[in-house]
Amino acid sequence: MLKTQELTLNMGPVHPSTHGVYRCVLTLDGEYVRNAVNHIGYLHRGLEKLAESRTYSQFIPYTDRLDYCSGLANELAYVMAVEKLMGITEEIPERAQYLRVICAELQRLASHGIFVGSFALDTAGMTAFFYAFRERDRVLELITRIGGNRLTPNYMRIGGVARDLEEDFFKELKQLMDDYDAAIDEYDGILTGNEIFQSRTKGVSIVSKEMALDYGFTGPNLRASGVDYDMRRDEPYGIYDRFKFEVPIGETGDTFDRYVLRVKEMRESVKIIKQALEQIPEGPVMAKVPKVIKPPVGEVFHCIENPKGHLGFHIVSDGSTKPYRTRIYSPTFVMLSAFPEMAKGTHIMDAVLILASIDIVLGEVDR
Amino acid sequence: MQIFIDLANLIRGWITGMGISEAAAEIVMTAVGAVAVIVFILIHVILLILAERRVSAFFQLRKGPNRLGPIGIGQVLADVVKTLGKEDIIPAGADKFVFKIASTTFFATALLAYAVIPFGEGMIIQDLNIGIFYFIAIGSTATMSVLMAGWSSNNKYAMIGGMRGVAQMISYEIPMVFSLLGVVMLAGSLKMSDIVEAQKNMWFIVPQFIAFLIYYIAATAEINRAPFDLPEGEQELVAGFFIEYSGIRWALFAMAEYANMVAVSAIATTLFLGGWNAPFGLTFIPPFVWFMLKLYVMIFTFLWVRWTFPRLRVDHLMHFGWKFLIPASLANILVTGIGIYIYRAITG
Amino acid sequence: MAKLIDREALVGELNKKFGDCAEVFEDNTNQSIKVKPEKLVEVMKELKENPNYELNWIKNLNAVDYPENFTMVYHLDSLTYHHKLTVKVEVEKTNPQVPSITSLWKAADVMEREAYDLMGMVFTGHPNLKRILLADDFVGHPLRKDFQLA
């Protein structure tokens, strides 16, 4: 019997495929992963502590820095939580509601665009990366027009949105939405349908329904495992009950499903934005909220369906202008904990893909 | 028509005119030829770096380098200056001697292959009667350099990359050799000039199309180009076996990659695409130009493949090589043999 | 909107089964119950597995530093019924020990480690209670209100 030795490989925090400053210590048998240990916290900025010394409104820009690929959606989650705490959920003007939906879905397109691109890159399909980033960049152009920044728009406000958007913006948005389906077809052509890509992803790291729930999976990863649950449809927040869209479900819960589900979700987001553009009424974009926000004593936990999963804020108020405690429930922080089990026994090349398929963003993992 | 041969004869006449013996003149001429080939390779490396960047940009909806000079030609010069100016870092834990010679030997093996490439009629440094065999033998030694680089870096990523490189290059050598056998059987010779002559009427890509495909795939794997660039494995191994190299030593690896690509393209041109032979009787274009045209078509397909496909996984690569390519190439030899037998039986 | 659970009935059922362990917790959310720390794991297991509730999805796990005590807040969610429940556990400031629920949900693992790291809650029975976000040699638990900044 040949004697072999296990190899400990330190992957990260500076490594092209860890999607940020994430470190993973892999124990390899040959090139197969025997064990993996997560090390996170390199991007910990103490946002929960910072929130305690900021007023409610002052914390909105900080939420942009959570999952920096989906700034507007994070803002929406935070703002809705504070509104729920203040009990003004019903007072948000109609136009603001529609603008919020448009923003959130645009952000979902941008975030899934990054996912498709970086996932392609992790299979070394560099060309598909540029295809995905082409549309993402057009989305970011629009987000720049919303808030002035590409990643950190700071557009949502407690009680509405910061400002109304001009006619030009809607025209361009409509144009982009008309182009989007063809673009997604191109992703399918260059990546999804590729034989090598499919053999790399199909049947790799299957996550069962039970395992997904055990590890607290949310969002696309949960649906990829076959759980038919989308917060936008099953527990609609805001005005999501007014839109017709389908919730794609994965069949086996492998890496390919996690990828292809997000591509399908992009198509649904396009549908939602198109409907919102048709229905959006004229009117004010800001409810009458006091200048100084002082929610009543109490607490609230509110989740929304973020591009990467359920982002929740648990805010405890003591009646003052600053929150007593703000807890950020971030989906990828919890889902990343499943990576060692998902990667166990796979090839190191697959481990990279599995990590990409969880779609982590370290800003959100480390907060 | 044959500028280079005329030029060579001119130099030869000039040397012998100085009263040097025939044998010494032959040695000098070989040296001159070698220098010419090295210049050829260096020019091509530079062209290919630019071509790769422009072509990849074209595939990826980008513009590519376009600021320095026309079509960004100055970018290459800037890159060369930058690479030469970089610090040569040798890791403290490295096996320094092996580390230093690995990049050189890798480039040297790439150069050696050019000794048997016929660029045109009579334009070959040494028309060995075992030309193909020589090419294969030299190609195999590149494996050593990959292992040396991976091992001596004293880096786990480099070691995994080096091991992958050895496994892959040795595995894919077998189908490559087998696919070339079909051509050799048709031509009845291992000599490059004979093989090109045998394609006067019909390029071997027509009767040996399967062999051409197998050669193309195996050669891509042999020179570690995407989608078979597993030893580099940028996503998981960062840069694989040359992860610790920097400056000119790193540049030698990059240059050797392009030199290898030109070499395998040249061999494909010679063995399958008729070498310097002009198709359709278009003989007013010189043979050398024909050779270069065919060479560039081959190189372009290599670029095309690289920027289209994602990378294979190691086990899939091995399965494909051993379970599909080798049986297919063996079957090709069998079919070719039967074909030749029948042909001879008919024509007597 | 989320459906609410009949908390009175739930608490009665739990008290009947495990002895005096739970009570309705009155706050603005109308979905909280308070559980004694020593019975936490049994109660959580019951909530997770009882087919009438099936709160099989842990959405959040949070520690709050109130002036009078530490409170662990667990937000549970049901995939089957789409109803929610908040389970609260109050522990003394001097001895912040809570039983770990990693045996029920693996998702609780990292969240408990985070609560230990930032708030100093000690989870008994946790397999790997180490700091997760902060450096291993960090002193103190920054989310506590008495943590000295700078």
Topology summary:
The complex is a heterotrimer of chains A (367), B (348) and C (150).
Chain A: E1 7-11, E2 23-29, E3 32-39, H1 47-52, H2 60-64, H3 71-86, H4 94-122, H5 126-147, E4 156-157, E5 160-161, H6 167-192, H7 195-201, H8 209-214, H9 219-224, H10 231-234, H11 255-279, E6 298-306, E7 309-317, E8 323-329, H12 331-336, H13 339-343, H14 348-358, H15 362-366
Antiparallel strand pairs in A: 1-2, 2-3, 4-5, 6-7, 7-8
Helix pairs in contact in A: 3-4, 4-5, 4-11, 4-14, 5-6, 6-11, 11-14
Chain B: H1 3-17, H2 22-59, H3 73-85, H4 96-112, H5 131-152, H6 156-187, H7 192-198, H8 209-222, H9 234-237, H10 247-272, H11 287-306, H12 314-347
Helix pairs in contact in B: 1-2, 2-3, 2-10, 3-10, 4-5, 4-10, 5-6, 6-8, 6-12, 8-10, 8-12, 10-11
Chain C: H1 7-18, E1 22-25, E2 32-35, H2 40-49, E3 57-65, E4 70-77, E5 84-91, E6 97-99, H3 107-119, E7 122-124
Report on the structure:
The complex is a heterotrimer of chains A (367), B (348) and C (150). With 367 residues, chain A is α+β, with helices and mostly antiparallel strands. Chain A is 49% helix and 13% strand. Chain A has a single domain, classed as Cytochrome-c3 Hydrogenase, chain B (Orthogonal Bundle). Chain A has helices at 47-52, 60-64, 71-86, 94-122, 126-147, 167-192, 195-201, 209-214, 219-224, 231-234, 255-279, 331-336, 339-343, 348-358, 362-366, and strands at 7-11, 23-29, 32-39, 156-157, 160-161, 298-306, 309-317, 323-329. In chain A, the strands form three sheets. A three-stranded antiparallel sheet of chain A has the order 1-2-3. Chain A has a three-stranded antiparallel sheet with strand order 6-7-8. Chain A has a two-stranded antiparallel ribbon with strand order 4-5. In chain A, a hairpin with a 5-residue loop joins strand 7 and strand 8 (323-329). The radius of gyration of chain A is 21 Å and the shape is globular. Helix content of chain B is 70%, strand content 0%. Chain B has helices spanning 3-17, 22-59, 73-85, 96-112, 131-152, 156-187, 192-198, 209-222, 234-237, 247-272, 287-306, 314-347. The N and C termini of chain C lie far apart (43 Å). Chain C has three helices and seven strands; from the N terminus they run H-E-E-H-E-E-E-E-H-E. Chains in contact: A-B, A-C. The interface between A and C is large, with 37 and 34 residues.
